[in-house]
């Protein structure tokens, strides 16, 4: 399914200049070759110095973003996408960015993503290349769906969920706010995963997982409270 973003130029900044941020920048560059044009102004990162970074540049921290918003040359809406792997940090940064006003979250769906029938996706969510979302799926705000992840029918992913590369989420799965699903994990049909829980890489989840725990292995077993 092609992205629904129009061909008009849309100015966007990426919050976070780490590895995932550079990946998102690469997605945006690739999307320019197709039916959208996102004009990447640069990265916003409180922990890195201004300067070149991958295909773009680091503008600075939130103060630099504030200046960009107030720049009279801007003259139009400015958008942002978060690219922070830590969901708790992501949520805190979103709250700070939204407090600045005059900047809007944008949903990015790479042109190789397949999105089928009756799918609703919240603002600020990023769907990476090769990801698949089937039918009657609900995905919240500021969710990361990484490369070649699959989300099957009737699933619900709450805000700030992170789905790592190669994850398989079977039908009727419910994933709570801020949960992290590690690379290559499989979530059995009908399972619920609690908010802010962590599922280890390669895990096979066949039973419900409560809030705020870490579960690993095949089958997945809880090893600690977070």
| Main CATH class of the largest domain | Mainly Beta
Order of helices and strands: EHEEEHEHEEEEEEEEEEEEEEEEEEEE
Spatial order of strands in the largest sheet: 7-10-13-16-19-22-24-25
User: Helix count, per DSSP?
Assistant: 3
CATH superfamily of the largest domain: Hexapeptide repeat proteins
Major sheet summary line? 8 strands, mixed
What is the rounded distance between the termini? 37 Å
Domain count, please report it: 2
State the low-pLDDT regions, or none: 1-6
Given helix and strand content, the structural type is alpha/beta
**Gross CATH architecture of the largest domain:** 3 Solenoid
Helix residue percentage? 10-25%
Query: What's the overall geometry?
Result: globular
Mean pLDDT: 91
Record field, number of beta strands? 25
GO molecular function, one term: transferase activity
Domain PglD N-terminal: 12-97
Active site: 153 (proton acceptor)
Organism: Candidatus Taylorbacteria bacterium RIFCSPLOWO2_02_FULL_46_40
Written account of the structure:
- The chain contains three helices and 25 strands.
- It has 226 residues and is α/β, with parallel strands linked by helices.
- It folds into two domains: 8-106, Rossmann fold (3-Layer(aba) Sandwich), CATH 3.40.50.20; 109-216, Hexapeptide repeat proteins (UDP N-Acetylglucosamine Acyltransferase, domain 1).
- The strands form four sheets. An eight-stranded mixed β-sheet has the order 7-10-13-16-19-22-24-25, with no helix packed on it. A six-stranded mixed β-sheet has the order 3-4-2-1-5-6.
- A hairpin with a 2-residue loop joins strand 3 (51-53) and strand 4.
- It is globular.
